């Protein structure tokens, strides 16, 4: 849970996107991550003013059968249990890599997150990091391209928002690609607004 802080956003933001083994719809994100596992994440450290990327990280994580598996989710992200067993890292390795990236840029300060339905991705990040006691404190400023899309173009689904601002069409959802597209949306809106102010 983000807590209010007088501390500013700072120089960096963490853009993150997760693909999961499923989702509990019409329920809390915490309930989703009691039942389903985060399978892959794409993380981007970006400049908080220009929304330009500084460093990226992508990891796929071995599936733990204590969680449930949704064939519908697999159809979206294309990550099979067999693929993850062969190519994924352990949760501990993934947590070490992500915590290292966060500490490098935020030290022990609060982290400003950007994503699409960002609170879902924060909950997935919490599932990975909290067992190893390395979950950072979340800044109360949470940036989200879903409501931003609704405010600017009247659409909030990721396919619609990303396609509008990036001109591309997505097939399978890749976590790093989606994180970078979130960043492109934020950069595009800032650029459009800056240009409007100059006119």
Describe the structure.
This protein is an alpha/beta fold and 199 residues long. Helices cover 46% and strands 16% of the residues. It is built from eight helices and five strands, in the order βαββαααβαβααα. The protein has helices at residues 29-35, 71-77, 81-87, 91-106, 118-129, 145-153, 158-166, 175-198; strands at residues 12-20, 38-47, 53-60, 113-115, 143-144. A five-stranded mixed beta sheet has the order 3-2-1-4-5, sandwiched between helices. α6 (145-153) crosses α8 and α7 packs across α8 (175-198). The mean pLDDT is 92.
Draw up the topology in text.
Layout: E1 12-20, H1 29-35, E2 38-47, E3 53-60, H2 71-77, H3 81-87, H4 91-106, E4 113-115, H5 118-129, E5 143-144, H6 145-153, H7 158-166, H8 175-198
Parallel strand pairs: 1-4, 4-5
Antiparallel strand pairs: 1-2, 2-3
Helix pairs in contact: 1-5, 6-8, 7-8
First-last Cα distance: 40 Å
Helix segment tally: 8
The main β sheet shows up as: 5 strands, mixed
**Overall geometry:** globular
Number of distinct beta strands:
5
Q: Rg to the nearest angstrom?
A: 17 Å
**Secondary structure: helix percent:** 40-55%
Strand order of the largest sheet: 3-2-1-4-5
Multimeric state of these chains?
Answer: single chain
Give the helix/strand class.
alpha/beta
> Which residues sit in consecutive blocks of at least 5 with pLDDT less than 50?
none
User: Beta-sheet strand percentage?
Assistant: 15-25%
Average pLDDT rating: 92
H/E element order: EHEEHHHEHEHHH
